[in-house]
Structures are given as C-alpha cells and as structure tokens.
Amino acid sequence: MKKTRLLKIVLKRTGAIKLLCSYVIVFFAVSVAIWIFEPNITRLFDSIWYCFSVATTIGLGDVLATTLVGRVLSIFLSICSILIIAVVPGVITSYYVESTKLRADESSAKFLDDLERLPELSKEELTELSEKVKKFNRKK
C-alpha cells in the first residue's frame, strides 16, 4: 500500500499523472473510433481488446483493422503507447535519483554542521556522530 501511495505522489509531483490520464483518454477514444469505423469489430469490448493488443505491441491478430481510419488510429495508438512506456519509467527514475541526491545533500549538510559545532556538542551527540562516521566507513 505504501509503494502505491509513493508512486501516486511521484506521478503527481512530476506531472506524469496528467500524461497517464491523457493516455487513458486517448486509448478509450481510439477504442470507440475503431468500434465505429471498423466493420469487423462489432462490440466495444472487442475494440478495447484490439487496442490493448496494439498498445502493448502484442498484436495477437485475432482482430485486425481493415479500413484506412482504423489503421491510422492503430499507428497513432502504437506511437502514444511507446512514448508512455518510455517516459513514465524515466520520470520515476529521475525523481528517485533526485530525491536520493537531496537526502544525501541534507545528510552531508547536517554532518558538516555537526563538525563545525564539535566543541558545543554533548557527549551523546558526539557518540551519535562517531557512530555515523563508523557506519559511513563500513559502507565504503
């Protein structure tokens, strides 16, 4: 549950949620258009299935677009799907890297601040600082 929440926050902060929502709208709009224009697709569910196989590049072949409009819409949906598959993981990775850098910078700043105030630190704070340094050295 926590990971799902974090994913939603990342997608919202980066603006990728708008991209995903736009993609879902395009997906269903193309599904409806395919259903309308393709004579061999008689049910909306079949059109959604066809669009799913196009979007995931599976291309099962059980349902095919035969009209020019259907084929153009299929190409459009394929391009949108490829872009989504490329962009969203990149956004998430970029956000993760930036948040990790920020955490490291904050830790470094706190560590340097503690070093500057070394004579003022209590025995407990000095012990804690010493443990952090030992832990840092073990990670290297």
Automatic annotation (TrEMBL):
Record field: transmembrane: 16-37, 49-69, 75-97
Annotated keywords: Ion channel, Ion transport, Membrane, Transmembrane, Transmembrane helix, Transport
InterPro entries: K_chnl_dom, VG_K_chnl
UniProt keyword Cytoplasm present: no
Domain Potassium channel: 25-96
Primary location group: membrane
GO biological process, one term: monoatomic ion transmembrane transport
Localization, UniProt: Membrane
Keyword Cell membrane recorded: no
UniProt topology in membrane: Multi-pass membrane protein
Any Pfam family the entry gives: Ion_trans_2
Name of the protein this chain belongs to: Potassium channel family protein
Biological source species: Ruminococcoides intestinale
Lineage: Bacteria, Bacillati, Bacillota, Clostridia, Eubacteriales
